[in-house]
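Side project, low priority. Logging it here so it doesn't get lost.
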Amino acid sequence: MKKRFLIFLFLVSLSVFSQNDSISSTVFSLTPRSNKDIRVNGIAIGLGINMGDENTLSQINGLNIEINPLSIFILMFDDPSRRGFSESSTATINGISLSSGHSNQNEDIVYNGLQLSLFSTSHSCNGISLNGFYNYATNMNGIHGSFLLNYSKKSNGLFVSFSNYSEINNGLQIGVFNKTENFYGVQLGVINKTKKQKGLQIGLWNINSKRSMPFLNW
């Protein structure tokens, strides 16, 4: 009797699990796609998972490659700061993401791992990212380097760029211009500015709510 009960319990658990995990999986996919819900455990390559009107690719575990011939025009005319920060995510990429440019279509995507891009827009960027021009995300965690700008609502870790901005930052900012609203850590640059600070500002000119000083401020 006990054995039958355990078998019955196992079958019920398996049935519930199968219902909850109804998304199909594949080892390769072209992007974008909109025919059915799918998860990629392998390689996804194409224009980007959110470039279509309806995205049904919910997760990529492995390698994501986005080659968009319009990236240079998006870089020239798209300004993600005009839209504000994305408050929710629709898809997740775990692993390595290589891109000619993550446009505003990617503002609801979470990147976990290594990201290399000409420029990037996302909901969250966790891990290591290197961007030719800018990295714009609601949340950034880890090590992030961009030639021109790192721009986020909330960030934790190391940020290196010509200009770094975050509403809330915990960690180390290294750049020519560093600016935050609430800062906990160290700002190292030519001009450092924050409203609320717990830490150090080291630079040619340092500004916080208490004082403005050259070289060192706290």
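Brief comment: The longest strand covers residues 163-207.
Revisit when time allows.
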